[in-house]
Backbone:
C-alpha cells in the first residue's frame, strides 16, 4: 500500500480521520463503560464481582476472534462499506445488551458487539495512515484513537453516572444512540474513493503475515503490555472503593483523571512515535511498568491514588501508537490490514488476560490491593518481548551491513 501524497492531508482527509474518531468514540465507550458498572451489574444480575468482570474478558476474546474472521470476510468489500457494516453490528449488539434479561444473554450480546471492534480499528488505522504522508502516519493513527481516549474521558464517567442514577441498562441505550451518530458521520465524511478497497485476498493469504517473526513479536508485546493495564483498570471501581475508600459516586469523577491521562498519552505517543518509533516503543512500555509498580503503593492514599489513575491513563495510551505502528511497519503488503486488525485483537487479548488474571488474584491470590504489582510484571513481559524484537532486528541489520561491506553490495537496515 502506498502513502497518500501530501495533498491528501488537507481538509477532506482530515474530516475523514475525524469521522473515524467518532466511530472509535462509540466503540471505546461500550468497551470501557462496563468497568464503572461492575458493582451495579453484579448486584442486579446476582453474580460475584469477578464473574461480572468476565464480561470484559468475554468482550476482549470476541475482539480477538472477530478481528481476523471479519477482516478476511470483508477483504473484498470497499472499506467505507465495511466500516458502516461494522458500526451496524456494534449498534445492534448494544441494543441486545440493553434488553438482556440475565447474565448469560448479556455475555452473548457483549461478544456479538465485540466482533466488530478489532476489524473497525484495524481497517480504520490503515485508512487513516493512507490519508497522510509517511512522516504523519503515527499522528493520523493517534488521531483516530483519540476517540478511545475521549470515550474514557467523557463516555465512561457519563455512562457510570447514568448507570448509578437510572440503572445500567440506560448506559447501553445511550451507547446505541452513539452508534447511530457514528454511522451517520462516517457515511457523510468518509469518501469511498479515499477509503479505498480491501486487499481482496483470501484468509490464508492474509494470515501469511503471521509468518513474519517481528509481526508475531509485536503482537506478543501488545498482549503482555496491555494485560498489565487491564489487570488494574478492570477492577478500578472496587480498588478505589474498597482499598482507597472512595464512594461509588466519587469513582465516576476519578475516571475523568484516567480519561485526561489517556488524551495526554495518546498525543504524546503519536507525536514522539513519528520522530523515534523504536525509542518510543521501549520507553513507553518502561514508563507504564513503572507507573503500575508505584501504583501499588499509591492506592492506600487518596490524593496519590487519583494522581496515579491519571498516570495510568497516560502510560497506557502512550504505548498505543508505537505498538500499532510497529506491527504496521513490519507487515507491509497484502497482509497489512490483517496485521493491523490482529494487533487490535492483541490489545483485547491482553485485556482478557489482564481481567482474568486480576480476578484470580482477587479470588485466590494475594487480593485486590496487590493487583498493581502483578500488573507491572505483565507489562515488563511486554517490554522484554519488544526489547528482544528490536535487539534481534538490529543484530540482523548489523550482520547484513557487515556482509555488504565484505561483498561491496549495499544492504538496507530494515529498521523502522
Residues:
Amino acid at each position: 500500500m502506498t502513502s497518500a501524497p501530501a495533498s491528501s492531508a488537507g481538509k477532506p482527509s482530515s474530516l475523514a480521520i475525524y469521522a473515524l474518531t467518532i466511530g472509535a468514540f462509540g466503540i471505546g465507550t461500550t468497551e470501557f463503560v462496563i468497568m464503572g458498572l461492575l458493582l451495579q451489574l453484579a448486584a442486579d444480575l446476582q453474580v460475584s464481582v469477578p464473574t461480572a468482570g468476565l464480561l470484559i474478558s468475554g468482550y476482549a476474546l470476541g475482539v480477538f476472534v472477530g478481528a481476523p474472521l471479519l477482516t478476511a470476510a470483508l477483504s473484498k468489500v470497499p472499506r467505507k462499506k465495511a466500516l458502516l457494516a461494522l458500526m451496524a453490528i456494534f449498534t445492534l449488539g448494544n441494543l441486545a445488551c440493553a434488553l438482556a434479561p440475565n447474565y448469560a444473554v448479556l455475555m452473548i450480546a457483549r461478544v456479538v458487539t465485540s466482533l466488530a471492534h478489532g476489524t473497525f480499528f484495524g481497517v480504520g488505522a490503515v485508512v487513516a495512515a493512507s490519508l497522510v504522508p509517511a512522516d504523519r502516519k503515527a499522528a493520523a493513527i493517534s488521531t483516530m484513537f483519540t476517540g478511545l481516549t475521549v470515550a474514557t474521558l467523557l463516555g465512561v464517567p457519563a455512562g457510570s453516572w447514568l448507570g448509578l442514577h437510572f440503572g445500567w441498562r440506560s448506559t447501553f441505550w445511550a451507547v446505541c444512540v452513539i452508534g447511530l451518530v457514528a454511522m451517520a458521520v462516517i457515511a457523510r465524511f468518509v469518501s469511498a474513493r479515499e477509503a479505498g478497497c480491501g486487499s481482496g485476498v483470501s484468509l490464508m493469504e492474509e494470515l501469511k503475515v503471521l509468518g513474519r517473526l517481528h509481526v508475531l513479536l509485536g503482537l506478543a508485546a501488545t498482549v503482555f503490555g496491555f494485560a498489565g493495564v487491564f489487570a488494574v483498570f478492570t477492577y478500578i471501581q472496587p480498588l478505589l472503593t474498597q482499598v482507597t475508600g472512595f464512594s461509588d459516586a466519587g469513582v465516576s469523577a476519578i475516571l475523568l483523571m484516567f480519561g485526561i491521562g489517556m488524551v495526554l498519552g495518546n498525543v504524546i505517543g503519536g507525536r514522539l512515535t513519528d520522530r523515534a518509533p523504536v525509542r518510543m516503543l521501549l520507553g513507553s512500555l518502561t514508563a507504564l511498568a513503572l507507573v503500575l509498580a508505584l501504583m501499588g503503593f499509591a492506592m492506600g492514599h487518596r490524593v496519590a491514588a487519583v494522581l496515579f489513575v491519571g498516570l495510568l491513563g497516560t502510560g497506557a495510551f502512550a504505548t498505543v501508537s508505537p505498538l500499532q505502528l510497529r506491527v504496521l511497519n513490519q507487515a507491509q503488503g497484502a497482509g497489512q490490514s490483517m496485521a493491523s486488525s490482529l494487533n487490535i485483537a492483541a490489545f483485547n487479548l491482553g485485556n482478557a488476560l489482564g481481567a482474568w488474571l486480576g480476578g484470580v488474584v482477587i479470588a485466590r491470590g494475594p487480593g485486590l490491593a496487590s493487583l498493581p504489582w502483578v500488573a507491572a510484571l505483565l507489562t515488563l513481559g511486554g517490554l522484554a518481548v519488544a526489547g528482544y524484537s528490536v535487539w534481534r532486528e538490529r543484530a540482523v541489520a548489523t550482520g547484513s551491513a557487515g556482509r555488504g561491506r565484505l561483498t561491496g553490495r549495499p544492504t538496507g537496515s530494515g529498521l523502522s
